[in-house]
């Protein structure tokens, strides 16, 4: 049953998650009190948590819950079913849209959060009967007759790689596929509906499931589920004596499976269930309970690491690769700051003397970036309001992304809470509307803009509104597919609108009000009334070249980690190394800032002061490379359905536009800071 946590648990559960996820008994108040005695003071408690956080930050962890469920022997354990999914079509279907066995009392849905609905999850009950530590074999679930339509539906699902997604005690089923050559265990995607044999040219349906559940006896009589595996088999069942069964009376004995031991490959390989024109299908299952030494707090580890399928060295390689890029850019900036800028500033600030007449530098002899000091802070002439709107939206996305990754890295977004990551992102984005309005309004006031209402409204509506329109269009396309769970219910759509119009938009206007009350940004130099003519720049300093090449290095700093993120989004794989993600994200921002500063310095040396939009687009072009990379990644899905193209590129368009906003904003503010620093260091008339 449920256990109320003692006071020590509430404090040290967090510290224990940092220090040892494998040995801390979560419900043992005595052990936790002993831990408290080791660190008796409040200051030491705080230091314990902070030091543990610092030491373990590079690898993400999780707080899987505060009250594990404990079962007594013989107690019923509920098995739930989720949507049928396919990485090829990206089109989820309701589990009972196919002719599987339904519960006797009817199908009942489980309450879900907004993130689960947006992810297409539909968790429902099932007819499988499981009882703690009670092994049962050759259990008959039901018998159903498949007509031509059902056969075609199953064949299509097998061809498109659809998988079951079962859940026991809030952990998903791992798939164990046994063949004559090898045994494959997969901790993502669930287990397949069936398989296609190329030799015989037939489709075979998995109608028997070996359900293996691992449990840990934390206390006498208290069993916690720590593992869940399903090994499917395709079996053309036959009754003893060749009798038939109408599915109503007592089930006759089966000769194709044993009530004394679980099904194995030798029993099933010669009796596979081929999908023909019209057949009777008997669904059966075995239940095997196995004791385990895995603690309840660590039961998600093997899922998140996918049984170490992706070594941590790969993520460290990503970090090292990103750091090398940062060091190279930092070296270039150090050279610019320590050599060129110091020389330029000392030369510009030198006063002519009678003893050294050659040191006189007339204005006509001046070259370099000082010549544009009267124009460098001139407001942009091309769409200044839209630049402010983009900056406001970029700040909103940037702060949301930072907070989301930080919360996930410290463990406050648990993989056990399905949809929590998306839900947190949506809520944080809405709450960060104040930052968007503030930065847009203050920058627009600095540009001496007159239409602040339009700027604020555009900030509140542009990125969220565009994303919502794309989302609604994709949702309507999904709604045309019968029984697909990808279409969001109307109640969830209303909740999204309420989150946007009821929370985000008012906060944007509040931030704009605060921004307009602040003084405009002060610049170290005033701009003249007459713009200075801009000489023709060399080809390598043209806008087209700098914008095109500006995103290469930031993309190179994150593309390795981007592969795993795309795999978690589109290949149904788990991704929970948010410690690495946070480091890569920080390196990405630093790279965007540094590459923008480098290009800006050479642009100013060429006496081109039109830097506002160019710096935003230089670092923002990272999004273009992400989109191109995602287009290449799309070939891994091997899909030929139009809806898959719409879903993939529609959602990637929203994601890449968000990346464009926050990377562009990062480069813009880095350039603004650079200009204020260097032009504030010289003496100007």
Features:
47% helix; 685 residues; 19 helices; 6-stranded mixed beta sheet; 4-stranded antiparallel beta sheet; 12% strand; alpha+beta
Question: How are the secondary structure elements laid out?
Answer:
Blueprint: H1 7-19, H2 29-38, H3 42-55, E1 76-77, E2 79-81, H4 114-119, E3 124-125, E4 130-131, E5 136-146, H5 148-159, E6 163-164, E7 166-168, E8 171-172, E9 174-178, E10 183-186, E11 191-192, E12 194-197, E13 202-205, E14 208-219, E15 222-233, H6 265-268, E16 279-291, H7 301-304, H8 312-349, H9 384-409, H10 420-431, H11 433-446, H12 452-479, H13 490-517, H14 543-550, H15 552-570, H16 578-605, H17 612-620, H18 622-633, H19 642-679
Parallel strand pairs: 9-15, 14-16
Antiparallel strand pairs: 1-4, 2-3, 2-7, 5-16, 6-11, 7-8, 9-10, 12-13, 14-15
Helix pairs in contact: 1-2, 1-3, 8-15, 8-16, 9-10, 9-11, 9-12, 9-16, 9-19, 10-13, 11-12, 11-13, 12-13, 12-19, 14-17, 15-16, 15-18, 16-17, 16-19, 17-19, 18-19
């Amino acid at each position: 049953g449920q256990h109320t946590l003692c006071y020590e648990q509430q404090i040290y559960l967090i510290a224990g998650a940092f220090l040892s996820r494998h040995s801390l008994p979560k419900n043992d108040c005595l052990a936790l009190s002993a831990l408290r005695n080791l660190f008796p003071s409040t200051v030491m408690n705080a230091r314990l948590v902070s030091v543990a956080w610092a030491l373990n930050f590079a690898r993400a962890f999780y707080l899987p819950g505060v009250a594990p469920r404990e079962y007594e022997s013989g107690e019923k354990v509920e098995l739930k079913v989720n949507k049928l999914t396919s990485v090829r079509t990206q089109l989820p279907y309701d589990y009972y849209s196919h002719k599987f066995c339904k519960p006797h009392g009817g199908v009942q849905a489980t309450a879900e959060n907004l993130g689960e609905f947006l992810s297409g999850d539909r968790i429902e009950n099932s007819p499988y009967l499981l009882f703690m530590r009670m092994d049962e074999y050759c259990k008959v679930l039901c018998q159903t007759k498949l007509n031509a339509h059902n056969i075609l539906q199953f064949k299509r699902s097998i061809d498109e790689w659809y998988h079951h997604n079962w859940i026991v005690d809030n952990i998903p089923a791992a798939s164990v596929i046994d063949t004559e050559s090898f045994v494959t265990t997969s901790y993502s995607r669930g287990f397949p509906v069936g398989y296609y044999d190329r030799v015989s040219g037939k489709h075979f349906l998995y109608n028997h499931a070996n359900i293996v559940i691992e449990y840990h006896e934390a206390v006498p009589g208290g069993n916690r589920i720590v593992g869940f595996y399903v090994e499917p088999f395709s079996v053309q069942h036959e009754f003893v004596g060749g009798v038939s069964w109408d599915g109503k009376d007592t089930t006759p004995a089966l000769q194709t499976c044993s009530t004394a031991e679980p099904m194995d490959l030798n029993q099933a390989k010669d009796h596979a269930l081929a999908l023909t024109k019209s057949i009777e299908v008997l669904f059966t299952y075995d239940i095997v309970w196995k004791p385990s030494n895995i603690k309840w707090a660590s039961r998600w580890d093997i899922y998140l690491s996918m049984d170490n399928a992706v070594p941590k060295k790969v993520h460290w390689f990503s970090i090292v690769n990103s750091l090398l890029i940062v060091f190279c850019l930092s070296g270039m900036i150090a050279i610019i700051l320590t050599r060129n800028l110091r020389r330029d500033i000392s030369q510009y600030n030198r006063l002519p003397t009678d003893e050294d007449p050659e040191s006189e530098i007339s204005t006509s002899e001046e070259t370099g970036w000082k010549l544009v000091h009267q124009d460098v802070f001139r407001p942009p002439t091309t769409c200044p309001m839209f630049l402010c709107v983009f900056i406001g939206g970029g700040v909103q996305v940037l702060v949301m992304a930072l907070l989301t990754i930080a919360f996930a890295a410290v463990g406050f977004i648990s993989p056990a809470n399905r949809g929590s990551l998306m839900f947190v992102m949506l809520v944080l984005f809405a709450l960060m509307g104040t930052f968007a309005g503030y930065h847009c309004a203050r920058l627009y006031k600095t540009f001496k803009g007159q239409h602040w209402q339009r700027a604020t409204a555009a900030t509140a509506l542009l990125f969220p509104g565009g994303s919502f329109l794309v989302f609604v269009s994709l949702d309507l396309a999904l709604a045309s597919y019968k029984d697909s769970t990808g279409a969001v219910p109307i109640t969830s759509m209303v909740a999204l609108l309420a989150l946007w119009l009821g929370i985000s938009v008012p906060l944007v206007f509040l931030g704009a009000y605060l921004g307009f009350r602040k003084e405009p940004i002060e610049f170290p130099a005033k701009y003249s009334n007459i713009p200075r003519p801009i000489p023709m720049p060399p080809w390598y300093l043209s806008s087209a070249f700098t914008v095109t090449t500006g995103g290469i290095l930031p993309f190179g700093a994150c593309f390795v980690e981007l592969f795993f993120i795309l795999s978690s989004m589109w290949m149904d794989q788990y991704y929970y190394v948010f410690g690495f993600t946070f480091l890569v994200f920080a390196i990405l921002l630093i790279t965007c800032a540094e590459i923008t500063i480098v290009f800006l310095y050479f642009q100013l040396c060429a006496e081109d002061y039109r830097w506002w939009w160019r710096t935003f687009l230089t670092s923002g072009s990272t999004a273009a490379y992400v989109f191109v990379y995602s287009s290449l990644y799309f070939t891994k899905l091997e899909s030929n359905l139009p809806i898959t193209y719409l879903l993939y590129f529609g959602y990637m368009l929203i994601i890449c536009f968000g990346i464009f906003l926050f990377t562009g904003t990062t480069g813009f503010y880095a350039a603004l800071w650079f200009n204020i620093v260097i032009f504030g260091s010289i003496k100007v008339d």
